[in-house]
């Protein structure tokens, strides 16, 4: 609930704050060719945080709770920002009235719900195909290929219908990790784990290389060299709006989240709030992509206002990534000095960079032994998914698990609901002689 609160509602608050500031400040600066629609697009562009850069700095074993919050909020935040950007682009906002606002809200909800639904459907189809159909479990190669292609199919369908592909593929991945991944053989699990980790690492490297090399494109900078002071002022204003927009929802929403939690140990402390605020200040590839999508339709080399917004976006991205990213680790160690010691006591998983799925990849025997532990004993604050599953609270999660065990997993498979099928290849059956 905290992730949804920050990622969805927090992004909306940041969008409103940055858009309002852009209208008030840039409107007075009278930048060429920019209108109200462009200012709202700026709000969506700079509401998208860069979770990739932040997660490169943080470590799951040292700060598990903070890592999970930043990771979850970053993905939902990116999806919400893209949905907001697409919703703004679909309307003529030169004359805003009540009807336009209702249509904008309806379009946002439509994109958000349909994108999520599409991702869930794609994930369930992949789980059902591997569990029920013979061609899905014919070999490890086919299992791995089916998982990759179904995830990519959800992304392509979302792009085809102008939905939020980030949100679609995110929920497709959630469903596949909960159902599909448990339906495949052990060799397929290991293969998919390392295959997706490798592809993710390569994609992150490509993103940083692309942003860096694009910043060296001299052509776009020629149109702002005549007024460097104005370009620096726009970049500084955007950076200030990012700081204010981030603070406008992190601290108020953290206060509301703490009111809903009865256990004091589950509340977000003020030092943690500062860390979450700082960790989300970085902007990255999503902001650059949205800026190019918005301000290059008429050519950034022909319109001076568009050139200023492109160069300012690149400046904010590079400055926030280098400066804020460099200071994140020292800030975490300064504000949360005991986090490293406590996390080492509570976490038994091996250390690996950005391995958010490690707690989900433990073997079934360890999970069953943990589940059979004495639940009456005191359990510390859940700082990992493994601890949350072994000590579930009486919340929405508990009722979802009941519904999942009774209706969903018997049909789509999952942990403990994927019975052995003689035709399925396993490590043992490959070497067994044929007795027929």
TrEMBL record:
A single MF term (Gene Ontology): sodium:proton antiporter activity
Entry-linked Gene3D superfamilies: 6.10.140.1330
Biological process terms in GO annotation: regulation of intracellular pH; sodium ion import across plasma membrane
Keyword terms of this UniProt record: Ion transport, Membrane, Potassium, Potassium transport, Sodium, Sodium transport, Transmembrane, Transmembrane helix, Transport
InterPro entries: Cation/H_exchanger_CPA1 (IPR018422), Cation/H_exchanger_TM (IPR006153)
Catalysed reaction, written as an equation: Na(+)(in) + H(+)(out) = Na(+)(out) + H(+)(in); K(+)(in) + H(+)(out) = K(+)(out) + H(+)(in)
Protein name: Cation/H+ exchanger transmembrane domain-containing protein
Annotated organism of origin: Stephania yunnanensis
Higher taxonomy: Eukaryota, Viridiplantae, Streptophyta, Embryophyta, Tracheophyta
């Amino acid at each position: 609930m905290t992730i949804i609160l920050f990622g969805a509602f927090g992004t909306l608050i940041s969008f409103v704050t940055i858009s309002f500031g852009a209208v008030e400040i840039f409107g007075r600066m009278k930048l060429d060719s920019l209108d109200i629609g462009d200012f709202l697009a700026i709000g969506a562009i700079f509401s998208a945080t860069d979770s990739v850069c932040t997660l490169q700095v943080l470590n799951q074993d040292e700060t598990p709770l903070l890592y999970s919050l930043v990771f979850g909020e970053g993905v939902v935040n990116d999806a919400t920002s893209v949905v907001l950007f697409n919703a703004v682009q679909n309307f003529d906002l030169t004359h805003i009235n009540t009807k336009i606002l209702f249509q904008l809200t309806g379009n946002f909800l439509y994109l958000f719900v349909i994108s999520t639904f599409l991702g869930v459907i794609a994930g369930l189809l992949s789980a059902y195909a591997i569990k029920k159909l013979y061609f899905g479990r014919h070999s490890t190669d086919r299992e791995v290929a089916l998982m990759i292609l179904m995830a990519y199919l959800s992304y392509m369908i979302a792009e085809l219908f102008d939905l939020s592909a980030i949100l679609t593929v995110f929920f497709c991945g959630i469903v596949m990790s909960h159902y599909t991944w448990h339906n495949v053989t052990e060799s397929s699990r290991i293969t998919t784990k390392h295959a997706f980790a490798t592809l993710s690492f390569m994609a992150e490297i490509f993103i940083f290389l692309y942003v860096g090399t694009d910043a060296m494109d001299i052509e776009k900078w020629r149109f702002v060299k005549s007024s460097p002071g104005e370009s620096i002022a726009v970049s500084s204003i955007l950076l200030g709006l990012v700081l204010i927009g981030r603070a406008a929802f992190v601290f108020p929403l953290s206060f509301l989240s703490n009111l809903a939690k009865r256990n004091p140990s589950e509340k977000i402390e003020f030092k943690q709030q500062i860390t979450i605020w700082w960790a989300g200040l970085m902007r990255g590839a999503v902001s650059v992509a949205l800026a190019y999508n918005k301000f290059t339709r008429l050519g950034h080399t022909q319109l001076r206002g568009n050139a200023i917004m492109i160069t300012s976006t690149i400046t904010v991205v590079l400055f926030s990534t280098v400066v804020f990213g460099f200071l994140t680790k020292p800030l975490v160690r300064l504000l949360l000095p005991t986090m490293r010691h406590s996390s080492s006591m509570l976490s038994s998983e091996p250390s690996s960079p950005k391995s958010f799925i490690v707690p989900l990849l433990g073997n079934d025997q360890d999970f069953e032994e943990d589940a059979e532990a004495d639940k009456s004993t005191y359990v510390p604050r859940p700082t990992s998914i493994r601890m949350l599953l072994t000590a579930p609270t009486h919340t929405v999660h508990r009722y979802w698990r009941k519904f999942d065990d009774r209706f969903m997993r018997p049909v789509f498979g999952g942990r403990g609901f994927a019975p052995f099928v003689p035709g399925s290849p396993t490590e043992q059956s490959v070497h067994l002689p044929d007795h027929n």
